[in-house]
Design brief:
The chain contains nine helices and twelve strands. The protein is an alpha/beta fold and about 325 residues long. Helix 4 packs across helix 6. The chain is elongated.
Length: about 325
Amino acid sequence: MSTESPTILLHNSETGEMAARLKAALPNITVAECNSYEGMQSLVPELKPDVVYSVRFAGTPGFPRDIMLGPDGPRWISVGGSGCDHLGQWDTEQVTVTNSAGVAAAMMAEYVFGSVLNFTLDISGLHQDKAARKWNGARLMETLRGKTILIVGLGHTGQEIATRAKAFGMHVIGTRARPVPTDNVDEVFAADDLPELWDRADVVAVCVPLLASTRGLIDARALAAMKPTTILADVSRGGVVEGSALINALRNGTIAAAALDVFETEPLPPDNPIWELENVILSPHCSSVYEGWEMESFEMFIENLRRWQRGEQLHNIVDPTRGY
């Protein structure tokens, strides 16, 4: 692998602006572009790129994982998002995988609290009253101050959620793989402690990667242990929350409401019954999508590429067994 004049393959739905930015920043490199999943099958063996910058822009089914992790694949794959479950497992002796964790953490935290406030302030009810020209002077607002939020996964996103939760005056508890004191978190626990934490939370924010250990983490038993007033916000990956169990819990009043940005099947099928539930906010896996996020992520990659050329340790190296 050449670090002085490497070949970089950009894999995204649109790569023109990225290619121009990369050539301007590092003129000694060779840049190739691929805007489809199918095109990677022939381009990777032909090009044998040193580095691939890749965004999972058309979902997981059909993603060219095998060719990217095959014998002609790069020694470094830079994932343009944070989740790497679409790559499955990989041999860290053969390829290094980095991600862009943190680039959208603040936006995802805003999504969580925008959704929670929608329920605590009964925004939909206010809209209904407005449409009916009804002045309901008996309305009471519900405060977040003094409530407890459980953050499942105190990574970049979880810590941004914690910062905002403290600004609302909430009591913050959370889990992380290696429990250590964390800014803006009152109590930090291990993931194994979750069964003792569910019933303490007024809000549960889910932001863990999808791993064998987290698949189905929030199942019927976990939901049954929550308060009937709990609001669940899921910005993790589809499969961490069991969809059928969640539908039952929302229908039966086991929990009060949910804001869901991720699903076990995406796009969410039109016949999925969760579309019909009034106590649910649905979004198309867009909590991390905002104007300019892709170029912010790409700037992280360019800086990492500079580090790589200097022989320095890369930022955001992903451990395939931990998912981050």
